[in-house]
Amino acid sequence: MGSNYLRLLSYTKQLSFYANHGNHEQALALFLHMQASLALALDAHVFSLVLKSCTAIRRPLLGTAIHAHATKSSLLSNPFVACALVDMYGKSMSVPLARKLFDEIPQRTVVAWNTMLSLYTHSNMLPDALRLFEAMDVPPNTSSFNPIIAGLLDDGFKAISFYRKMQQCGLKPNLITLLALLPASVGVAALDLIKQIHGFAMRNDLGCHPQLSSGLVEAYGRCGCLNYAHNVFDKMHERDVVAWSSLISAHALHGEARTALNIFQQMALCKVQPDEITFIGVLKACSYVGLADEALYYFSRMQRDYGLQASSDHYSCLVDALSRAGRLHEAYEIIREMPVRVTAKAWGALLGACRNYGELELAEIAGKALFDIEPENAANYVLLGKMYASVGRHEEAQRLRMEMKERRVQAVPGSSWVVYQD
Predict the structure, then answer these.
(1) Would the pTM of this model clear 0.85, i.e. be above it?
(2) Which residue of 61, 270, 283, 365 is most buried, as measured by CB atoms within 10 A?
(3) Domains and CATH numbers, the chain
(4) How far from 356 is each of 332, 366, 374, CA to CA, in Å?
C-alpha cells in the first residue's frame, strides 16, 4: 500500500509537470498508465490536470470518459474538477453543454463562475456573459470582470464603464485587466486612462511586462504622444518584434515616414526579425506620404529577403502609395495581378487618387468594382458622381444618384465626438 502511494505521488508530480508545460500527449499517456497500474483511487488533483490536457489538445471523448469516472468517484463536488470539466466542455464540445454542467454544480465557487464567464466571452456570447455576471451569487473578483472588459473591446466606453464598476467594488486590476483595458482606451482616445494604466503598471512592478509595454507604445502612438511612446520603448529591457512594429506604426500613423523607416533600419541592426505586421507599418508609412519607390522596395524585400507572404493589406498599402504618387496605372496593374483577394481598401485608394488626379477612366473601373464589393457604401457613388459632374457628364451623375436610390443607399452625415474628462 505504501509503495503504491509513493508511486502515486511520483506519477502525480510528473503529470503536473507535463500538463503545466504543454506536454499534453505525455500527460494523457501517463494518466492511462496510472489508471492501469495503480491499485489506489486517483484524486481530484489528478483529474483536474488530465482534463486540462484533454482541453488543450481537444480530446472530448476522453474528457467525457473522465467525466463519467469522476462522477463515479464522487469528485464533481470538488471545485477544481468541476471547473476543469466546464472548461473542457465549453472549449472542446459546446458552450450550452458547459452551461448545463455548470448549472448542475452543487456549490459554485467564484472560479466556476469565472470559467463560465470566460467561455461566453471567448465564444462572442457577450449578452449571455453579462446576464450570468448579474446572476452571480458569490462576490465577484478581478477575474470575473476581466473577460467582460475584454469582450467589450468594440465599445470602448462600455469597457471603461465596466472597469469603473470593478473599481467601485474595491477591486484592483491585474495584468490581464490592463491588457484588456488598454485597447479599449485607445479606441476612444482616453489618454488620461492610458496614463493611469501606465502609472499603475509602474507602481506595481508590471511596467517591464513586454506585452503591456508594447501595448503602451501603440496606445501612446495612436494618441499622438510619440515622446511617451519612445519613453516606454527606450525603457524596455527586451524589445521584441511587437514593440518595434508598434513604434514604426506610431510614426507611420502621424505621417513621419522617414522616422518610421529609420526605426525599421535600427530594428534590422538589432537582429530582430520583422513579421507581416511590421511591414504593414512600413508600407503605411510609405503610402501616407506617397513614397512609391520606397514602398516597392520594401514590398520586394518583404518577400525576397524575409520570405513573408504578402496579404491583401500589404497590397492595399502598395496600391495606396503608388496612387498617392500619381502612378495610377501602375497601381491598377498591381490590382490586376494580385494573387490574393482584392479588397475595398485597394480599390478605394485608387478611386480617391483618381479624383485628385482627374483620371476618370480608371475611376469608373474602380467605382464599379467597389459597387460590387461594398454596395452599401454611399461614398463611392458620391465620389464618382462628383467626377462625372466636374467634366459635364451630368447624365451619368444623375444615373448614379438613381442607382443609389434604387439600392436604398444613403449618405451618412459626417460626425465627430469629444471625450470630456471630469
Answers:
(1) no
(2) 283
(3) 1-121 (1.25.40.10), 310-409 (1.25.40.10)
(4) 16, 14, 22
